[in-house]
Amino acid sequence: MGGDSAAPPEKAKPSPKPTPLWDRSPGSVAAVGDSITRGFDACDVLSDCPEASWATGASPEVDSLAVRLLGRTGAAQRSWNYAVTGARMADLPGQMAQAVRRKPQLVTVMVGANDACRSTPSAMTPVSAFRADFEDSLRSLRKALPKAQVFVASVPNLKRLWSEGRSSPMGKQVWKLGICPSMLGDADALGSAATLRRDTVQKRVEDYNEVLAEVCAEDKRCRHDGGAVYDYRFGTTQLSRWDYFHPSVNGQARLAEIAYRTVTAKRPLT
Questions:
Q1: Model's pTM, two decimal places?
Q2: How many domains does the chain have?
Q3: pLDDT band at 139, cuts 50/70/90?
Q4: Is 19 domain-assigned?
Q5: Does position 12 have pLDDT exceeding 70, yes or no?
């Protein structure tokens, strides 16, 4: 009789796939930010319209980020909007504190336009303060929810909005009520002083966008839109017919598209 045959080699167990840092289909969404995320002037003059929000709105015409990710029923149950019209970056830590109580898997951030839209360019939020408050907001989120994901939208191109909207006499009348005076004040003035004022505001917006991209890049679970909102060429169709500055329902839908494309991309946009 022969000796014992060698035992067959054990099959190597497949190593478990590492959990990806970015989940392209998060199960809940909280939004923080300013009037754009509240749908201000999208449905009626000088009023919020959260149902038209690009982030969490239920409007079929907008097809918001939350609806695209969660479906209509899921968005109604698992998305929350903590944005406030008029909010600046200094308000973001407080909004973030509200959002974390919901334990969202994704937080959307769109803020910064009001930091540039002040009474005068000298009243704009300093870049250093803007950075400090954004860092504080992400730090508090990360402390409470280590695995929460963040989508950060760039600040829109305010000078382009001025250029588009100044063709509307009604829009310019609404601007006189105090909408972004640093950029929109004396809308038809084209002299050197007015040009310098607008260029100063535009440079600050660019600086803010640089901060948003840099701070987001330091967080492995944060995705920036790569400047897509800033670069988007909003035309009159995408602007509110009441103020020719805030997004219309159509403009909100375009913002939802940008956000969804960024969140569901296989790799971060650059």
A1: 0.91
A2: 1
A3: very high
A4: no
A5: no
